[in-house]
Amino acid sequence: MHVVxxxxxxxxxxxxxxxxxxxxxxxxxxxxxxxxxxPQKYKPDDPHETRAKSIWIQLKQQNGYETVSIIWRYVKYxxxxxxxxxxxxxARGRGYCMPRARFMAAVRGYHTEIQKELWEYEKEFARIRQxxxxxxxxxxxxxxxxxxxxxx
Length: 152
Known about the structure:
By secondary structure, the chain is an alpha+beta fold. It is built from three helices and three strands, in the order H-E-E-E-H-H. It has a three-stranded antiparallel β-sheet. Helix 1 runs antiparallel to helix 3. 12% of the residues are buried.
């Protein structure tokens, strides 16, 4: 029984590693897409906001885990004296996918085709987040099973 749980654990680790690799390749595709297409200037709602929002995506490795966080960010403002950018994360919310209205508001400076393509990437990232969450739950159940089997 212990050998079977080790095989399952190895399979879970392989699946998590493949999801991480897929996420990093998708992030690279998004970064290449965003570099090729600069945002247009738009009429900002805030009179102090003079630059177009430029967004990017970051892949953040969790401490001690194989899972990754996929974070969309944009430059909120620039420091007046140093011109250092200050960043804002685009909040994902409670689910795996960011609300469409919030995402589209963040990418409104880009062309419509680019916005649609970025939204498709976000939906794919949501599927990756959901799979990672399920694999994490499965790993937790497996650890509990191993503890229970060790007591007998």
